[in-house]
Each structure stands twice: as C-alpha cells, then as structure tokens.
Amino acid sequence: MEIKLEDKSLTKAERNEITNLLAQQSLYCLSDLDQMWRLMDLVWDKYGCDSKELNWVVIGQFYSHPVWLLNGLFIEQDDISMRHRQAISDWVVNQNFKKVVDYGGGFGTLARLIAKKNSQIFVDIYEPHPSEFGLKRASEFSNISMVDKLDETYGVLLSTDVLEHVPDPLHDFSVMIDSVQVGGYLIIANCFYPVIKCHLPQCFHFRYTFNVFARLMGLDVCGVIEGAHATIFKKQRVKEVNWKVVRTIEFISKVSFPLIKLLAPILMPIKRKLFK
Predict the structure, then answer these.
(1) Rounded CA separation 95/118 (Å)
(2) In what order do the strands lie in the sheet with 219-224?
(3) Share of the chain above pLDDT 90, in %
(4) CATH 3.40.50.150 occupies which residues in the chain?
(5) What is the dihedral of CA 148, 91, 87, 268, to 10 degrees?
(6) DSSP letter string over 168-235?
(7) Other CB atoms closer than 10 Å to residue 55's CB: what's the count?
(8) CA 113 to CA 137: how far, in whole Å?
(9) Upper half-sphere CA count for residue 52 (Cβ side, 13 Å)
(10) Inter-residue contact 91 to 187 (CB < 8 Å)
(11) CATH says 79-245 is which class?
C-alpha cells in the first residue's frame, strides 16, 4: 500500500507517525484494504483496547491516533471507496439541500466533495475526535463547519461507517433522527461485520435487522443510493420511540443472530426473489 503524503495540512508529527505505520505493513496481506485494516488493528492492540471490556479512555486515544488520518488518506486514494462517496455526494447535491450534517465525518472527504460540487450547500461535520488535519482541511471551505454538538435540524444527515463503532447504535441512531427535519433524509452506511477489531461484536446482529429498527423509529426505508453502500431513510413524521418495544426486539435480534447468520446463505436468495 502506497500513500502519498505531500498534503501540506499534515503536521510533522502526523507525517512521521503515518510513515512509521506504513513501515509496519505485512507481506502477507492480500490487498491494500486488508493492509489498512491490519494497521488499524495494530494501533487498537497498542492501546490495549478490548471490544468486549470497553475502556473509553484508551478507546478515545485510539480514535485520536493518526492511523485515522492514514485511513482517510487511503480512502481518498482508493477507487472503490471514492466511487461510493462520489455517488453519495452526487445524490445530496441533486436533491439541492441547504444544510447537511456529516455525523462522525471527521476526515471530511464527503463534506469536501459536497462543498466543492455546490458552494450554496452548507455542511456541518459532527466529530467527537477531530484531528488537526481535519480542522485545517475544513477551514479551507467557507461552507464547511466543524461542530461538537447538534444544535439544529438538517435536511439530510450522512453517516458512513459509524454505528458499528458505538456501544448502543440505537441510541445514536435516535439522536441522528432527532437532528433531521420532518421530510428530510438520513443516508446511512453501516458495516456490522468483524473486519477490524474496533467494530463491536455486540452490534453485529444489526446487519440483518437495522431496517426493522429504522421503521420502528418512524423512518421510511427508501432503498439504496445507486453506486454506493448507503441506504436512504426518510423522516416523514415525528414519532416518539417506544423504547420498551425497541429494546425487546433488540434483545430478540441479538439472541437470534447466531441462527440467522447460519441460515442467511439460504434465506437471503429467497428474500431477494420475493422482493424483486
């Protein structure tokens, strides 16, 4: 995996840390993506993080580490990753939203794509662990702001590969929904799979049931964005979440996950045929 480090927004410390990480690449990785995931796992282990015994002090250090800058640089140099983000940004621009929030979008790739394509769209990046690099890159655009809380509602909320990292995805999802105007949209891309160690196993059952919870929480499922791994949800109304029902179904989803995972290779082709 070769990453260009010419970007002047990188500090000397960030550049040195990324160079050190790249020097730890393995000859046995089959792809650049596998290489990137392996380096992220090395940093996870370096801090002694544990996906079952969650220590948010050390996990916070992990999410502030320059490996996330490396991941962002990798995404911007990876054709497949950028095709997905181009498709999402095109969809947003074509809908002509006035105010957008990228939830957990600290590196800012998606925000910058939207801001470049339409200078009349204002994009907030909500990021609990902003890097100096991300702040510098965002400051280059008059229509991008970094925010540390959600004080307003938006026409569309974007969230790519966020919810698999949090201990209670449904709580965070409800915060996302509350941040969207009635008639607005949420564009959500999840990866509830154990591809890297910071994807929390307690979330994996949502790979089969996430859309069920979206409907329970008042959203319409509109399909996926063509050319991207993101699902479109529409907020048609304000709905008070019945957390007793949601948590009960969440428990059922969790305990039935091993069986569903076992049967998925059989059930998924049938589902695709029934819902063509």
Answers:
(1) 11
(2) 144-147, 122-126, 99-103, 154-160, 180-189, 231-235, 219-224
(3) 77
(4) 79-245
(5) 100
(6) -HHHHHHHHHHTEEEEEEEEEE---S-SSTTS-GGGTTHHHHHHHHHHHTTEEEEEE-TTSS-EEEEE
(7) 12
(8) 12
(9) 0
(10) yes
(11) alpha beta
Residue 233: CB partners within 8 Å, gap ≥ 6?
A: 185, 186, 187, 188, 214, 219, 220, 221, 222
- How many CB atoms are closer than 10 A to CB 20? 10
Angle of the 67-76 helix axis to the 12-22 helix axis, nearest 10: 80
**Bridge partners, residue 234, by sequence:** 185, 220
Using H for helix, E for strand and C for coil, what is the string for 11-76?
A: CHHHHHHHHHHHCCCCCCCCCHHHHHHHHHHHHHHHCCCCCCCCCHHHHHHHHCCCHHHHHHHHHH
Q: What is the pLDDT of residue 5?
A: 79
pLDDT digits (tens, 9 = 90+) for 5-37: 776 678 888 888 999 999 999 989 889 999 999
What span, in angstroms and rounded, lies between the C-alpha atoms of 43 and 127?
Answer: 20
Sign of CA dihedral 147, 148, 149, 150: positive
Question: Both tokens of residue 225?
Answer: 């964005």
122 in helix, strand or coil? strand
Cite the beta strand spans of 55-179 per DSSP E: 99-103, 122-126, 144-147, 154-160
Residue corresponding to tokens 């993506």: 33
**Which pLDDT tens digit goes with each residue over 132-173?**
888 888 889 999 999 988 989 999 999 999 999 999 999 999
